[in-house]
Amino acid sequence: MAVLEMQRISICALKKDRKKILEYLQQKGVVEIDAGVEEDDVFRKMDTASARGVFEKNAQVAERALEILQTYVPEKKGMLSSLEGKAQVGMSAYNSVIERQDAIMSKARQLVALERQTAENKANIQKRENQMEALEPWKGLDVPMNFMGTKKTTAFIGSISSVLTLETLHEGIAQAVPQIEAYDAEIISTDKDQTYVCVICTAKDAPAMEEGLRTMGFARPSQIGSLVPAERQAQLVKKREALIQKNEEIAAEIASYGEVRRDLEMVADYYRVRLAKYEILGGLIQSKSTFLITGYVPKKEAGALVEKLESQFTLTAELGEIPEEEEAPILLKNSKLSSSFEGVVESFGLPGKGEIDPTTVMSWCYIFLFGLMLSDAAYGFIIFAACAVLLKKFPHMGDGMQKSLRMFMYCGLSTLFWGAMFGSYFGDVVDVVARTFFGVEATIKPLWFVPLNDPMKMLVYSMLFGLIHMFLGLGLKAYMLIRDKRYLDCICDVGLWVIFLLGLIFMFLPSSMFASISQMYFTFPPAVNTLAKGMAIGGAVGICLMSGRENKNFLLRIALGAYDLYNVTGWLSDVLSYSRLLALGLATGVIASVINSMGSMMGSGVAGAIVFILVFVVGHILNLAINLLGAYVHTNRLQYVEFFGKFYEGGGRPFNPFNMQTKYVDLKEEN
């Protein structure tokens, strides 16, 4: 349970060693570099925009090439491939690829060019298909689309925006141009909206015929060619097939690049790493022959880092304490078990300045409460076994996923424990199977009690666990105040509240209200009852007098104290929040029992066994999924609101070291 102490580091080195020093710091990954020093007449920042642009572009080209390969020759991956993590690559293999980066990037550009050509071909294929579709109504026309007639005749080829028969076409022409008798009209085809026609008349009657056809909604086609439509369509089919064939050839050529996939991944990571280095380089101030680096380093790493730098390079490295007014970045350091729950703390907020890391204490509370909410031994074993197998099978999975699986593995053990305590194994499946299929009564007795049979007892214990959880939060607050030597604050803000709350609790326990709710009876000696009343009254008076102690106005001080005392209602609501331990535990057990009862409705025959198995498998998978999510959400809530609310605010800034952040491969040191 620790927030690693940070130190300020300042490095002044020769400019000629700049590249090697930055690469060394990037490989070590223990320094967060900042722009701590301003420019002046001597020290200036270097413009690295041009170099960054080149690296960014190269990385994008390599990543685009990888996307193309994934489209045409996808890697064969299993259902759990996302857990495999990055590929492990030795430094020698990585350096070998970097030496060939120009050749690899040439292949990447070729892949991008091939894919661009494929896209152009696809656009042309679509264009040809659109043209073929437009020619479809004209397939019956035996002259070219641009046929305008002969010396003595004029042809009108086009469409009329209505459905006509040959008879209605002639009637329309006769009505539009009754003076024209020498003409010929033919319907090429019709569809649901238009009629495609060819009308031929004498050249001298052409103007009148054109005007008459326009009154009927005549329009010439947009696609005009010198070939007969059927011939033009056949030509388009050949061009389309040629383009399709070309794309197939390109696809085969792209597939032949599949063997360079890993090389492309390493090159993409290489350029991303270089881009990060040049972004840092652009923020450093430099003189003609030296440059400066300032930043943060964990204190436990600082000494060894400075010693190594000074032994390898000509430089000066200084370590210093972080000024009081400066906010240092936060890096947590916990045991393997507790570190699995760091994501829960980070989701709320890293420790703020002066706060402790609550991860270790919170992790044990989390495990305890999670198992209490799910509380089925079989479910717990499934969660534990599944997470343990995945962690064993995929040792190189991402750090975040690894922590999450370890967290659920520990929570699975807690669930198994509480399931055994409450006698829940897939609900009451042992009882149902024994009674339905074997005609006997058999059960696994709980090690403690069955919450379904005694819910009020479970409610009381839920409240008790909640009180312990919240008092633990108060204890951590007291620890921080004592650590900071704020003894009066500890007495007033923690001690008085503990006295007041304990007094109320000891007054409530022997009451008839508590007895009627819990069916538990407490009888304290008169001295204890008197002490409880005294503690409650004394604590309340102390809170009223001391909560507003910074204010010199006595009346305002009392008013602020009374307002703070009103917060006891918040404590009551927080305690009641722990009833979710009962609610979720009962929900898991009740739904499991209902599933078992539904499965046994068909009786004990073969059909009954088949139905039971199907209902059992599907029902319990759904029940596990729903209640697993519920336990996760509500356990988080109890930590964030009821526990952290007593002592923790968060808001710290995460430590962001300058390191080799790769996307595709992890570089491993070789012996």
Structure description:
The protein is α+β, with helices and mostly antiparallel strands. It is built from 23 helices and 14 strands. Strand 7 and strand 8 form a beta hairpin. Helix 16 crosses helix 21. The longest helix has 38 residues, at 606-643.
Summarize this entry quickly.
By secondary structure, the chain is of the alpha+beta class. Helices cover 60% and strands 10% of the residues. The chain has helices at residues 18-28, 49-72, 91-99, 101-135, 166-176, 206-215, 229-255, 261-283, 299-312, 336-339, 342-348, 359-374, 377-393, 399-422, 429-437, 455-483, 487-508, 512-518, 526-546, 554-565, 568-577, 579-599, 606-643, and strands at 2-3, 6-14, 32-34, 44-45, 87-90, 153-160, 183-190, 195-202, 218-219, 285-286, 290-298, 315-320, 332-333, 665-668.
Specify Rg, calculated over alpha carbons.
40 Å
Could you describe the largest sheet, including whether it forms a barrel? 6 strands, antiparallel
Give the averaged pLDDT, no decimals: 92
The shape is extended
Oligomer state equals single chain
N→C terminal distance:
33 Å
Number of strands: 14
Q: Low-confidence stretches at least 5 residues in length (pLDDT < 50)?
A: none
Structural class: alpha+beta
Count of runs of 4 or more consecutive helical residues: 23
